[in-house]
Write a structure and sequence with these properties.
The structure holds two protein chains of two kinds.
Chain A (H helix, E strand, L loop, with lengths): L1 H18 L3 E6 L6 E7 L2 E10 L5 E4 L1 E6 L2 E7 L2 E8 L3 E3 L2 E4 L7 E10 L5 E8 L13 E3 L1 E6 L8 H8 L9 H24 L2
Antiparallel strand pairs in A: 1-13, 2-11, 3-10, 4-9, 4-13, 5-8, 5-11, 6-7, 6-10, 11-12
Chain B lengths: L26 H7 L4 H20 L8 H14 L12 H9 L2 H4 L11 H11 L19 H12 L5 H30 L4 H12 L2 H7 L5 H21 L3 H15 L6 H18 L4 H29 L5 H13 L2 H12 L15 H11 L11 H6 L1 H17 L1 H5 L2 H23 L19 H14 L1 H32 L1
Helix pairs in contact in B: 2-8, 2-9, 2-10, 3-7, 4-6, 7-8, 8-9, 8-10, 8-11, 8-22, 9-22, 9-23, 11-12, 11-13, 12-13, 12-14, 13-14, 13-21, 15-21, 16-21, 19-22, 22-23
Classes of the chains: A alpha+beta, B mainly alpha.
Chain lengths: 204, 511
C-alpha cells in the first residue's frame, strides 16, 4: 500500500514536471566560444557592453569555464539602470554557466552584461572570440568578447516535445531505433515491479 | 576449528552480536542464513536492470572517462598488451566515432545535445562501417590503472567485434551493469551479517543501493568504478562475516583474494586497504583466543592471497617498463611539492567537512560538505556537468534530514549494542577515512589552479555498503510498528530519485 502510494506520487510528480517547458536559446551574441580569452582569479568583475537582449529571456548562459566556479552575480543594465539580474551559487562546474535571471517581457538593445565573481580559490576561464582591440569595460582583463546565449522558456511543454526527444534517443548508437525508449521503460518497470515483490515478501 | 555463532540469534531485537561467545543459533536465524534468500537475488536483479536502463539512457562515451576506459579494453583486446601512454591517442576507429558523436563538443557543455538528425546518423553509420584500425597508442587517464576490469571486458568486446565499436560498447556496458547486481548482492550479505536481528531491513538497504542513480550511471558504463564498487562491497561483507562468526582460514583466503581483486581493479582501492588490514589483524587477535596457530595461519593466508597477485602485476610492470604505481608515487610527490603534510591534511579535512578554527580557508564562500557531497549525491551526472535546478537541492534536504533523524534514532536506541562493536566500527571508519584521504589528496595535487576536480561522489561508491547500512538503520529507526512503512517509503523515495535522475539525463542529452 505504502509503495503504491509512493509510486503514484512519483507518477504524479513526473506528470507535473513534464508539463513544464524546457529552456531554449532565444538568441546569442554571435560570438563562438572558440578561444580562451583569459583567466579570472579571485574576486572581480567582468562587463561586456553592446549586447542585445531578446524578449522574454529568463536565463543567461555565459561561457565561463571552471572546475569549481565561484558565486556569480549577473546584472544586465540599460542606460545605467539594472533591468534584470540573477545569481548562481559557488561550486558550479563545466565549460559554461547558466544564471537564471528575473524574466523580462520586452527586448533591449545596447545593454551591458556584468558578472561579479566572489572570491574562490581556482581559475575561471573566459571563453569567446578574440578582438583586435580590448573590449571596453572589460577592465583590461580580456581582449575579446565572451560568448553569451540568452535563454527563455519554450512555448511547448516537455510532453509535447516527447516525440522529438524519443527521436533523439534513437540516434547516435548501435543498434539505433526508437525501441531504445521502450527498452528503458521496460527495464525500469521490471526493476520497480521486482522491488515491490521483494518488499511485499520481506516486510509483511 | 569450531565455528562461531552469534548471540543475537536468541535476542532478535537486541542487534547485539558477540562473536567470542558461540551459541547455537535459533531456527529463524538458521533459516535466514541458509543459502541466499530469494530477496537477495531479487535485489541484485533490480540493480542490474536499473544499471542496464542507465546504460541505454546515457549516450555513448558520455560518462566520465569512458573513451579512455574503452581505449584500454580495445588496446588489451587487439594487441594483448597493456597501454603504456596516458595520451588520448585512441584508435582511428574510436576517434572517428567520437568525432561523429560530437563527443568533445558535448562533454562539459550542457547546452550541447548529442547528434540529432538523420544526416548525422547516416554519417556516423557510414564512418563506423569503414575498415579503420582498432589499435591506438594511448588510453588517456585509464592508462595507469591495473588490468582486471579491462581484461574481463575484453569478452563482450570480442563478442561485439563483428559489428561496429558501438555494438561492442553496448555489450561492454551491459556486462558492466552486472557489477551493479554483484554490488547489491554483497551489500545484502553485508547487512545480513552486520544487522542480523532485523532481517526485513536487509531488503530495504539493498534495494536502496540497487536504485542509487550514481551506481546505475557508473555500473552502466565502461568504467572500473562499477567493479571496484562490487569488490569493495564484497570486502565489507567478508569483514562483517569475520566479526560475526570469526576468522576461519577459508574466510581469510577469501578476504585476501577480494583485496587482491580490488588492487588489480582500480588504484583507488588502496584507500580501503589500511582499514581492511586493521580488520584482519583485529580478527586474528580475536580468533587467537581459540587457537593461536589457526588464527595466525589465517592472517598469513589472507596476506599471501592479497599480495601475491599484486606482486606479480608489479613485477610484470617493472619488466615491461610500465608505471604501475603512478597514483601512489604522485600522492607522495604532491605532499612534497606543496611543502607541508599539515597543510595537506587541512585541505583534505575542508574538502569534506566544515573548516575548523585556525585552519587556512581553502574554499572561501563554499560549503564543501553541502555543495560537493550532498548536492553531488542528489544529482550530478554526465561529465559532472548535468545538474538539477537549484531548488531541487534545497527541497531534497527535507527527506535527507528525515533519513538522518531516523538513522540517529536507530543509533541512539542501539547505543548499547554499538559499544560491543567498537572494533568493527573502527575498521569501517578507517576504510572510509582512508578512501576520503586518498580522494582529498588527489584534489590537493591540483591546488591552487583547480579545486574540486575530485569532488565527485562516485569516488565514494566503494563505501556504498555503509550507505545501505544507513538506509537499513533509518528504516529500523522508525520503530517496530512503523519500521516497515518507513522502509517502504525509503525505497519509494529512492525509486523517485532514480527516475528523476534518468529524466534529467534524458533532458540534458536529448532535449
Amino acid at each position: 500500500m505504502t509503495l503504491a502510494v509512493g509510486l503514484a506520487l512519483t507518477g504524479l510528480a513526473v506528470f507535473a514536471v513534464l508539463q513544464h517547458s524546457p529552456l531554449i536559446a532565444a538568441g546569442s551574441n554571435g560570438v563562438e566560444a572558440s578561444t580562451e580569452l583569459g583567466v579570472v582569479q579571485g574576486a572581480g568583475s567582468y562587463c561586456q557592453p553592446g549586447e542585445r537582449l531578446p524578449r522574454r529571456i529568463s536565463a543567461l548562459r555565459l561561457s565561463f569555464a571552471a572546475t569549481t566556479g565561484p558565486k556569480i552575480v549577473v546584472a544586465v543594465s540599460s542606460h545605467r539602470r539594472v533591468v534584470t539580474s540573477g545569481t548562481i551559487g559557488s561550486g558550479w562546474y563545466g565549460a559554461s554557466v547558466t544564471v537564471a535571471v528575473r524574466p523580462l517581457r520586452r527586448a533591449y538593445s545596447d545593454v551591458t552584461v556584468c558578472a561579479h565573481f566572489d572570491s574562490l580559490t581556482g581559475d575561471v576561464d573566459v571563453l569567446g572570440e578574440q578582438a583586435s582591440a580590448a573590449a571596453p569595460g572589460a577592465g583590461g582583463l580580456v581582449p575579446g568578447k565572451l560568448r553569451i546565449v540568452y535563454l527563455r522558456s519554450s512555448t511547448k511543454s516537455w510532453w509535447s516535445l516527447a516525440g522529438w526527444v524519443i527521436g533523439h534517443i534513437a540516434l547516435g548508437r548501435a543498434p539505433s531505433g526508437t525501441w531504445i525508449v521502450f527498452a528503458i521503460v521496460v527495464l525500469v518497470a521490471a526493476a520497480v515491479a521486482l522491488a515491490a515483490l521483494a518488499l511485499t515478501q520481506e516486510l509483511r | 576449528m569450531r565455528r562461531q555463532h552469534v548471540r543475537c540469534a536468541s535476542a532478535p531485537e537486541a542487534n547485539v552480536c558477540t562473536p567470542r561467545a558461540p551459541i547455537v543459533p535459533g531456527p529463524a536465524y538458521a533459516a535466514a542464513h541458509r543459502g541466499l534468500p530469494a530477496a537477495a537475488w531479487i535485489c541484485a536483479l533490480v540493480a542490474f536492470l536499473n544499471a542496464a536502463a542507465w546504460s541505454l539512457v546515457t549516450p555513448a562515451f558520455q560518462v566520465p572517462d569512458e573513451p579512455s576506459h574503452f581505449a584500454y579494453v580495445q588496446d588489451l583486446a587487439e594487441t594483448d598488451t597493456l597501454p603504456t601512454s596516458s595520451q588520448e591517442s585512441f584508435s582511428p576507429a574510436e576517434e572517428i566515432a567520437l568525432r561523429d558523436l560530437k563527443q568533445r563538443e558535448v562533454r562539459y557543455s550542457p547546452q550541447n545535445p548529442v547528434i540529432f538528425n538523420a544526416a548525422e546518423q547516416r554519417q556516423l553509420r557510414h564512418d563506423l562501417a569503414l575498415a579503420l584500425s582498432r589499435v591506438g597508442s594511448g588510453a588517456g587517464v585509464a592508462a595507469s590503472e591495473p588490468p582486471l576490469y579491462y581484461a574481463l571486458l575484453t569478452i563482450p568486446y570480442f563478442d561485439g567485434s563483428s559489428g561496429t565499436i558501438l555494438d561492442s560498447l553496448l555489450l561492454m556496458r551491459l556486462c558492466s551493469a552486472l557489477t551493479a547486481g554483484l554490488t547489491t548482492l554483497f551489500v545484502f550479505l553485508f547487512l545480513r551479517e552486520a544487522l542480523p536481528a532485523a532481517r526485513w531491513t536487509w531488503t530495504v538497504g539493498a534495494l536502496g543501493v540497487g536504485f542509487a542513480p550514481l551506481l546505475g550511471l557508473m555500473s552502466g558504463a565502461v568504467n572500473p568504478d562499477g567493479l571496484l564498487c562490487a569488490i569493495s562491497a564484497a570486502l565489507f561483507y567478508c569483514l562483517a562475516r569475520g566479526f560475526r562468526r570469526g576468522l576461519t582460514p577459508r574466510l581469510a583466503l577469501l578476504t585476501g583474494l577480494v583485496i587482491a581483486a580490488g588492487l588489480l581493479t582500480k588504484l583507488s582501492f588502496i584507500g580501503l586497504v589500511a582499514g581492511a588490514a586493521l580488520g584482519l589483524v583485529l580478527l586474528t587477535l580475536r580468533a587467537g583466543h581459540l587457537s593461536r596457530g589457526v588464527a595466525y595461519r589465517s592472517l598469513a593466508l589472507a596476506s599471501a592471497a592479497a599480495l601475491a597477485p599484486v606482486a606479480v602485476y608489479v613485477l610484470v610492470n617493472e619488466l615491461t617498463g610500465r608505471s604501475a604505481d603512478g597514483l601512489v608515487s604522485s600522492e607522495v610527490a604532491s605532499a612534497a611539492a606543496h611543502g607541508s603534510a599539515l597543510r595537506e591534511m587541512s585541505y583534505i579535512w575542508q574538502f569534506f567537512l566544515p573548516r575548523l578554527p585556525g585552519m587556512h580557508d581553502y574554499f572561501p564562500g563554499l560549503s564543501t560538505t553541502r555543495r560537493f557531497w550532498i548536492d553531488g549525491f542528489i544529482g550530478l551526472y554526465g561529465w559532472v556537468d548535468t545538474v538539477f535546478p537549484a531548488w531541487v537541492y534545497n527541497i531534497a534536504l527535507i527527506p535527507l534530514a528525515l533519513l538522518a533523524a531516523l538513522l540517529a534514532r536507530a543509533l541512539i536506541t542501539g547505543r548499547h549494542a554499538l559499544r560491543h562493536r567498537g572494533a568493527e566500527l573502527t575498521v569501517y571508519a578507517t576504510m572510509t577515512i582512508g578512501l576520503m584521504t586518498l580522494i582529498g589528496a588527489s584534489d590537493y595535487r591540483e591546488y591552487p589552479t583547480h579545486i574540486g576536480n575530485y569532488a565527485q561522489p562516485r569516488y565514494l561508491l566503494p563505501v556504498i555498503a555503509l550507505y545501505g547500512a544507513a538506509l537499513a538503520l533509518a528504516a529500523r529507526g522508525a520503530g517496530r510498528r512503523w519500521g516497515p512503512v518507513a522502509g517502504t517509503s525509503i525505497v519509494a523515495l529512492l525509486i523517485a530519485h532514480d527516475v528523476f535522475s534518468q529524466l534529467l539525463e534524458i533532458s540534458r542529452y536529448y532535449g
